[in-house]
Every structure is written in structure tokens, then in C-alpha cells.
From TrEMBL:
The protein's name in its UniProt record: DUF1674 domain-containing protein
Similarity section: Belongs to the SDHAF4 family.
Top-level taxon of the source organism: Bacteria
InterPro entries registered for this protein in UniProt: SDHF4
Location of the region described as Disordered in the Swiss-Prot/TrEMBL record: 1-55
Length: 66
């Protein structure tokens, strides 16, 4: 499935300010310092791609919701 933005030309990004670079570095350090989440495996879940992230709100042609 293609998005509407797939055919748009990619514009180069402007360089980040020093404050933005510091913020990104601090966020990366916080992520590294956090212990990994040990969540239990989901039982009876829907399987496949995460619908909230990929917009797949149907299974076998039927619309689903939470």
C-alpha cells in the first residue's frame, strides 16, 4: 500500500541547531539507561502488524475496533 506522500520529492533537511542536537543526545542517553521492558506475551491477540501504527483496521474484510 502506498501513501500519498510516496511520490513527493525528498527535500534536504536543514541542519539541527546545537540545542536540538543536545536534546537528541540527552534523549538517546535516557533510552540507553532504561532497562528493557519484560512484558508477558499476548495470548489470543490479533497477530500481524500493529493497527495503531499501520492503520490496518480490518481483518478478512471486516472492520474491527478495540
Amino acid at each position: 500500500m502506498q501513501n500519498d506522500n510516496d511520490n513527493l520529492p525528498v527535500e534536504p533537511r536543514k541542519p539541527l541547531s546545537p540545542a536540538a542536537q543536545r536534546a537528541l543526545a540527552e534523549a538517546e542517553e535516557r533510552r540507553k539507561a532504561q532497562p528493557p521492558l519484560n512484558l508477558p506475551e499476548e495470548l489470543g491477540g490479533r497477530g500481524g502488524a500493529e493497527p495503531a501504527r499501520f492503520g490496518d483496521w480490518e481483518i478478512n474484510g471486516r472492520a474491527i475496533d478495540f
